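Standup notes
- HV: blocked on the assembly model, inputs below
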Amino acid sequence: MYFKKNFNKSFNILLLRILIIFVFILVSFFIIIPLLPLFLKSFSDNKNNFIGLENFINYIQNPSLTQSFINSLKVAITTTFFSVLIGFIYAYALTRTRLPLKKFFNTFSLFSLYIPPLAVAIGLIYIFGKQGLITQGFFGTIPGFDINLYGFNGIIIGEIFYCFPQALIILVSALNLSDQRLYEAAESLKASPLRKFLTITLPNIKYGLMNSFFICFILSFTDFGVPKVVGGNFNVLATDIYKQVVGQQNFAMGATISIYLLVPSILAFLIDKNFQKNEASLISGKSIPFKPRKNLIVDSIMFIFCSLILILVIGVFSSIVLASLIKIWPYDISLSLQNFRFSNVAGNGYEPYFNTVFMSIYTAIFGTIFVFFTAYLVEKFKPLKKIRMLIYFFSTLPIAIPGLVLGLSYILFFNKPSFSVPFLDFQIFNPFSLLYGTMGILVLANIIHFFTVCFISATTTLKQIDKEFEEVSESLKVPFYKTFLRITIPLSLPTILEIGSYYFVNSMITVSAIIFLYPAKIPVSSVSIVNMDDAGDTASAAAMSTLIVLTSLFVRLIYEFTSRNVSKKSSVWINPLET
Amino acid sequence: MIKKEGSFKYLEIKNISKNFGETFVLKNIHLDVFKGEFLCLLGPSGCGKTTLLRIISGLERQTNGDIVQDGLLISNSPTEKRDFGIVFQSYALFPNLNAKQNIAYGLENKKINKKEIEKRTNNLLRLVGLEKYSDQFPSQLSGGQQQRVALARAMALSPGLLLLDEPLSALDAQVRSKLRNEIKLIQKKLNLTTIMVTHDQTEALSMADRVVVMERGHIAQIGTPFELYENPITPFVADFIGKMNLLKGKYDKKNCVFYYLNNRFLISQNTEYSFLENCLLGIRPEDIEIIKFRKNIEKEENILRVKIKEITYLGTIFRLTVVLESKLEENIFVDVISNQVISNNLKIGDFIDIKLKKEKIKLFESNL
């Protein structure tokens, strides 16, 4: 009756489906599937015989290993408590008070994000260690004070340094979402300050608070750098895995301990995810931002508090720099650059440094492309809903996978040239094994290790871009990839730069994900810090740390400069006409 | 259904249904749109009007039914293969492209040479009166100008069908009425078949050749603005298009009398009122007259004695809210020319007599 045009199949939709499935395969192979050999390994001995739960039973029966589990929990709970507390007070000071020099405190609060946890620990040695500035009273000029750094105390201080800025970032953005009108309404109803805090402030930030608990718990539960350097005899799970794998080549036990490390992290992740599901925006688009009033007492207390925190952060950094410049601490305190030669035992000269810089550049480039494209496919299109939801879930998972566990699972997965199919005498070539022993696997491990934060930030930005742009393009017969290149990318440029710089900085400072993975011919700087510290060459370790921090800060400066230029250029689109 | 002379069915919507799980959004929609016609889908939010528009565009897929455009079955065609242009409520202008680039966006993807694109873009800019603003970015344009860019962009590929999704609702009142006329003029000039979704009845009545009133996923009534206003077929349409007082009572078919409480109203003979007994009497506020207060009102037809509860000033008219003393909670609205209120010195609490014009009274089946 009617002419039926045979154009029901659309090339674009087909292409889109293929791309979504392709990305699904990639995230599966990079995130989920490598965990399977790790699970298998934990059920077998070192000759790959299946032995059931024997490893787990051996673990529980070994008192020194179970002690590590308890130690890790102790560290994580204590660190989480203090990091969130300090982070909250600092964030409150930045957002809800008239703190003097707010801009300065804001900028420098995140300074410790650029210091690798390893370097923080080394800095702590020079302050609180046996020959430390405080312990020895500034080279004997004043009475000393020993805090017993090596062990629990040192780990806690180091981890708080590492975790507190993470809590701070989350809590500042939670506290920034405020509505002045709610406080005014409460005031008109004669509510006391405490009542306002309990009924308005706390409920508004409960999701941020919960999220910061979760992040701090996972980071401190799984961190390797700090306990490695200042842990002394206080063993934790992360250092145990390292000892089993690197020290004893016992991969089976390494895998078993990894499971003990992974399970609490995943549990914390699921609890947080379940909690965040109920998040509904309590602040409407019409809300008026909170304007703090002057309060001399509160403002002064906050000023003193924030100053103390900053003095500690800057103190740790300065002591690293100082240590790297001093000839032989504490015997010859004249300044020299000899520690920057890296010619000693574990040195390798500047090779590790440049390897790390290149690794970080590759991670920044490929990671940003991959993460942004993944978020774009998940966020902007309608086909294959279930697969897109799975990609989303997989993408949020890496934050709960400890770096060491990721590294170990990558070795077990990527070093296999082929897989045997169960019950069939059949081998499948593993194309990913080609990456093994190359820089590629380091880059990939970094991309996945830091994937979640980048993915969430890309998704958030893409959500803010009108979904109707894609629909308009369809109606104008313009294929989606042209709109992606011409509209979506330019509009997301600030976030893309942010993701790139995040990837770069974190790849510079990370150690846990790559310590098992780096090929002997490609030494990296964070691993050489571990090795130099192990060899007693702490001054060179401090020098390498200094280089890493300075490089990260330099890249961050370039980022700030570029993004300011970008926003200047794009301000004509963003700032609406003043009428 | 009226068929305009010389025009043909351009778009046929046949038995379209849409449900999300158990909930029906659209139920068995039949609709023909004629070539060059301006059709409005009108209804309260949630009535399914936007969903219907999105199904026509292919951005949403129907659960059942077919769509035929210009003799071609397009029910399952992807959006990009359908022949239409669309303007969204938010305009969805690309913020990083200027007005000209926005309009040329679809043209640049076609294999047309640059000169031709330039020419057509300039023509479109002229058509919507924005020649001077071609280099401005959307954020530098006013709401009305942005709307015109969106309109020009939607028309750039010379589509056979123009879809407008609440295109004017983000604009302030003055710009809105100006744009109404402009859109209508352009549409007529190009003889472009157009479907517009709106919840604003004034907009629908002033722009559309025909209006489709939708209610909870189905079509309540289709007609010209005049037909809808003068002859609404359901109380919903009556009260949605303009304002109508609805009084519940009993109808005596034989004597053509409607009983409301203790009052009788004579109704014009009308064979269409086949229903019996319980029904609704409808009368528009402007079809009620105020008459001078009289002693013996029983002798006159269709008169009620009421008390003024509220007086609202609406410019050229006053709207009075009046009530019967025997039923204080039921408001009856009466529109009166301003100087009549002033010269009679009407005040809240006054008693007046009102007369329902017999020939203007409608009866509706009561579902209540």
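- HV (later): unblocked. Chain A touches chain B at residues 2-5, 7-10, 12-13, 466, 468-469, 471-479, 482, 486-487, 490-491, 570, 572-577, 579 (CB under 8 Å). The two ends of chain A are 56 Å apart (CA to CA).
- Next: hand off to the docking folks.
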